[in-house]
Amino acid sequence: MDFAKVLGRFSVQRVQSPVLMAVQLRNLGMNQSSHLNCTDRSSGKSPMGCCCSVDSKSVGGEVFLVTSSSKSDVDYLGESTKGDLNIKEEHLDAFGIDGQATLDYPIEEIARMEAKGAEELLSDLGILDPFSSRHSPRGIFCSRTLNLRSISAIGYDMDYTLIHYNVMAWEGRAYDYCMGNLRSMGFPVDGLEFDPNLVIRGLVMDKERGNLVKADRFGYVKRAMHGTRMLSTRAVSEIYGRELVDLRKESRWEFLNTLFSVSEAVAYMQMVDRLDEGAVPAELTPLDYKGLYKAIYCTILFIMAVLAKCHSNLWHDFQAVGKALFRAHVEGQLKSEIMSNPERFVEPDPELPLALLDQKEAGKRLLLITNSDYHYTDKMMQHSFNRFLPNDMGWRDLFEMVIVSARKPEFFQMSHPMYEVVTSEGLMRPCFKARPGGLYSGGSAQMVESSLNIHGDEILYVGDHIHTDVSQSKVHLRWRTALICRELEDEYSALICSRGHRAALIDLINQKEVVGDLFNQLRLALQRRTKGRPAQTLAATNMDDQELTETMQKLLIVMQRLDQKIAPMLEADGEHFNKRYADIYTSRVSNFLHYTPFMYFRSQEQTLAHDSYSVYLPHLNGFAVDHLSKPSGL
Ligand SMILES: [Mg+2]
């Protein structure tokens, strides 16, 4: 559709509107989602109380001014106003628009009509609005308010962030190599197959007990498997009823941080079964679950390190174990296998390079910070990006700085030696100061900050590793963070599908609560009467004995039947995704495409238990207030 035509039609339809001025403002290019700092001319103060000054640098052509870093303030949500838009007064004058007159209309009326108009306009333009994106599996979800306009630089991890691998192909190969090695060591692996549905990231391995557990945000174990067998609720309660999952105890608990952990966990759970069956030769390992984990750990960890260099600290542990011959052999084999046939391992996403291009053209400084080495990074990025970029652009053109072999998480914590990659063959030379546009190996996050002259919350880092990418960059540098979690798409769809189930479950639980309340009151009445005391009320004291006991028996039967219905429904009900560490989270980087590089992500209100009553049961509030305001007895 012709944009000018649509805009023209929109303007004509609304020309007689009581909010004429607001329409005219939009025709100047300022849509509803823009965060406007409208300065009141007469008083010189902002109507919202924010009075930051602006510079004259115009990013949006002739239409508006952008608040610069040096002139920025903090808005009413505590976010920086850097990058916010400001009306250009002389532009209004040129169009004959009186900004003061616009503010004379009740803002509620203007906002209501503008919101409706904005929806219609986006629909006419065929553009998916952020509201629709938010309510889909491809939404970007916000835990902590984040203003993209105040972000100067966006850093990206590569593996499973900019490049999504086919889990079955990738993890399947890692599993095959692991099993091949275990077989050569004498482990009984015949008949075992890779089953990616057995585990999911976010679970925790209990290496002492050979279990895989799912814990809630407080560390309580909700479900558990022993080997590949699901444990009953009773067994879970007996084993974990008195203890919490404590991830600081690394000797016992192993958190499955990334999709790379899937093959490791599958191999471990299957070998736990074999150990229980007595099939593992005693000379291979101490016959306990921890010893078994160590044997697998050495094998699979090495493979993960080869594939992604994503566990550099553990990688060093493995090196200490010393299996140089095996390492050299498998490293070469795996890398050449993946690089020679990336189609088999990588899931293409044509929208992703375009999302990054929008960000770059909006003035964001893009960084690639990956633990993978130069050759691997270059090959995989060429494959995933170049064919989807316009003209002759290559992946390197998107990034202001590229850092390979970064050795995260140490990258965020300390300073490693830095090398500049100087030839396309990957030859390097020592380097002491990074410069924009460079390609480096090693170094540190502090070096990135000082060379680009940007700091802390001006940088958004996007990664898939909850600890390495998201937690460490936030804890040590106060960078803003985004977590990429592909499983969200399935989880979101599952939540939507289970809405009816959940509503039915909540209904039943509420009914049980009402029935249970009555039962408890009758029981108390019976208890008091048995002791020769009056019950709670005169009516309860005088209630017929038989009627009282019959009613209680009936209620007990109802509660038991409700339990029989509720228990399996609760069992089938999933838990919510844990979003504690990331400011925003989403399933894939290309989801940024539908939000624009100017999005202001607002977190939803966090509620406590009493809040939900005030939201869902407003009539009770009214009742309580009325009740409290009246003298007792009336
Ligand atoms: Mg990664």
Automatic annotation (TrEMBL):
Question: Gene3D superfamilies given for it?
Answer: HAD superfamily/HAD-like (3.40.50.1000)
Query: What are the alphabetically sorted keywords of the record?
Result: Hydrolase, Magnesium, Metal-binding
Q: Would you say which domain of life the source belongs to?
A: Eukaryota
Q: Which residues form the signal peptide?
A: none
Q: Which GO terms describe its molecular function?
A: 5'-nucleotidase activity; metal ion binding
What family does this chain come from, according to its entry?
A: Belongs to the 5'(3')-deoxyribonucleotidase family.
Q: What is this protein called?
A: 5'-nucleotidase domain-containing protein 4
Specify the species.
Tetracentron sinense (Spur-leaf)
* Lineage, top ranks: Eukaryota, Viridiplantae, Streptophyta, Embryophyta, Tracheophyta
